[in-house]
């Protein structure tokens, strides 16, 4: 829509005057940029998908020696997919309560002069490279958590997660999940904080005027309002956890297996970590197997995101 | 419950919004506050149940007593004050995710109180009847409160406020977002509620103040940037026929300034 094209424009103004002409040029340029940017991202996504397809599909069916001792593609990818999901869910279980609590602290509990710096520090956490997190987990946090591993294996062994011989160096899925949780915490926190802060004052006052305490007000007004936003936040965190490579690759000593046991020496390996550790010493066949697992991860993340959108849309329709 | 206010001043940080208000509000009567926008009448209303404390840095000096008890006393919990002093807002604000039934019960379910189903049903019916809404919604109590018309939503908010059996009901321009028919319904309701509750209402509509209230307080600003103050507080009849203060007369007769 340009001003110059408006038939109702003041007849005294020449529609081809320099002023109106410049406005429409800017409009065309900006529109062009926006359309290009939008198409480019779709093209990039399609290119990635095509690459994964062409390079990966042969990997579904190669000589069985290339499947890391698992015999077939399904034998390899099912444990990997399980581990990917398992590590991501463990990370979410740890990260979500913390994120929601921190977001509430920032939006509803802390005075402004504390809330602003806390929010800033949490956002900074997102800027730490994942290699640094991985290093920290493997070198510092893992050894530090060794007594915790021993305690869990001794006292909570009735849970399948802790039933077994605990690791002596802390380089386990347990440590990796904690590091992963720290890595996805900023994104979940900052989205939750934004939606919490947007709760209409009218709803908050409705609760407070009935004699609600602050926590009751949050339950009555803030959470119902923020529910779909919180689901999006969690799903974005899940998406990041699914694709995260370095933390798991560097911390957990890996093995392709399905096991709920998270504090031992052999840990289920995720797809991303499996690719990162395997692709350098690869033959072409082995490489296409790795790419095929990448294709599975891509499809899986895509499904998770679609599911998230569906949940959010359903929540809104109500 | 009577409300006694002595020398109350209200501050937002360094800014003094309202200055030296003193008044005595009679129990089981309707008291209206009128005055131009920004004169502090809503702010003052909110100090009667400590709702102004929602805004950081807001505080009150002076004394406000409800039924003889200082609501700003050192051991007084604002949450407890708000349970005794209910409030209805300018725009209807039912909880959007709750049904009509749950909206009415929202206040009763606070403080982790458990209510048995027959008791809850009785509370809902009584409150909705009290708010003149029962006949309109009794067949769809499970439907969302947001599905009602604006006037019905406002009556739902009144039902929600009276379901906890407060002693005082504050209304902050309760009809300003409503059409004339809904407004008439609310005004009728105010007349009925007066036999059980002490009602304080802020309104921009002087005819409304004249119609519903027993006493009227006129708030005004001395000048732009100055705090608001209470110009006159008198029985409504006197206020609208023979006010003490010439400013009141000018405002009421439309010759404001």
TrEMBL record, chain B:
InterPro entries: AAA+_ATPase, ABC_transporter-like_ATP-bd, ABC_transporter-like_CS, P-loop_NTPase, PstB-like. Keywords: ATP-binding, Nucleotide-binding, Translocase, Transport. Residues 3-246 form the ABC transporter domain. Pfam families: ABC_tran (PF00005). PROSITE patterns: ABC_TRANSPORTER_1, ABC_TRANSPORTER_2. One of its GO terms (molecular function) is ATP binding. GO terms for cellular component: membrane. GO terms for biological process: phosphate ion transmembrane transport. PANTHER family: ABC TRANSPORTER I FAMILY MEMBER 17 (PTHR43423:SF1). This is Phosphate ABC transporter ATP-binding protein.
